[in-house]
Design a protein that fits this description.
The complex is a heterodimer of chains A (110) and B (118). With 110 residues, chain A is mainly beta. Chain A contains no helices and eleven strands. In chain A, strands 2, 4, 5, 9, 10 and 11 form a six-stranded mixed β-sheet that branches. A five-stranded antiparallel β-sheet of chain A has the order 1-3-8-7-6, with no helix packed on it. In chain B, strand 7 and strand 8 form a beta hairpin. Chain B contains no helices and eleven strands. Helix content of chain B is 0%, strand content 53%. In chain B, strands 2, 4, 5, 6, 9, 10 and 11 form a seven-stranded mixed β-sheet that branches. The chains are: A mainly beta (110), B mainly beta (118). The interface between A and B is medium-sized, with 20 and 24 residues.
Chain lengths: 110, 118
């Protein structure tokens, strides 16, 4: 069964304290791995798509990497406005639907 | 680019009534649209997938007669919650994927609709 697991469930950082969020997956035939950011009461905001192991993408303070078993979302020198829930999702096989992880709730304090 | 809107953003209705939620892709043509629901502090749960001009494909356990989905054009999909009950209260979110300048694999999400059934 296809599965996506995110860790930690929640993370509290001080402003400027870099860290990484993990997304491990077990799927048959990965087509793509997606990272989204979701603020309370809003829909997810697209961040990155990764398609193959070794691929990396960056956007401001965020950098996403992909291996054959997991993906990391690295946050460098976070700011309070980076506080949100970060969701990881995969597309697998011949299907275009997403399988979501439970998310990591990130809180960045000044 | 890749903007998806939803209307309404919030709706409160009485038990037994029906509620329609609209999802529009504003700057691209969405060949596929998805409907999710999300409970507090939980992740998104896919309800159904719809392709323009075709019947929606519902996930296991989702009542297709209760949650009616119509994808009549490449920019509009609607979700109608029929005979709503308090247990249908939730946050409903749509997403869209398509071609043009967007990646066909990437889903772009709307802002969500908060449904409260009294």
């Amino acid at each position: 069964e296809d599965q996506v697991t995110q860790s930690p469930e929640a993370l509290r950082l001080q402003e400027g304290e870099s860290s990484s969020l993990n997304c491990s997956y077990t799927v048959s035939g990965l087509r793509g791995l997606f990272w989204y950011r979701q603020d309370p009461g809003k829909g997810p905001e697209f961040l990155f798509t990764l398609y193959s192991a070794g691929e990396e993408k960056e956007k401001e303070r965020l950098k996403a990497t992909l291996t054959k078993k997991e993906s990391f979302l690295h946050i460098t020198a976070p700011k309070p406005e980076d506080s949100a829930t970060y969701l990881c999702a995969v597309q697998a096989g011949g299907y275009n639907k997403l399988i979501f992880g439970a998310g990591t709730r990130l809180a960045v304090h000044p | 680019g890749a903007v998806v809107s939803q209307h309404p953003s919030r709706v409160i209705c009485k038990s037994g009534t029906s509620v329609k939620i609209e999802c529009r892709s504003l700057d691209f043509q969405a060949t596929t649209m998805f409907w999710y629901r999300q409970f507090p502090k939980q992740s998104l749960m896919l309800m159904a997938t719809s392709n323009e001009g075709s019947k929606a494909t519902y996930e296991q356990g989702v009542e297709k007669d209760k949650f009616l989905i119509n994808h009549a054009s490449l920019t509009l999909s609607t979700l109608t919650v029929t005979s709503a009950h308090p247990e249908d209260s939730s946050f409903y979110i749509c997403s869209a994927s398509g071609g043009g300048s967007t990646s066909t694999d990437t889903q772009y999400f709307g802002p969500g609709t908060r449904l409260t059934v009294l």
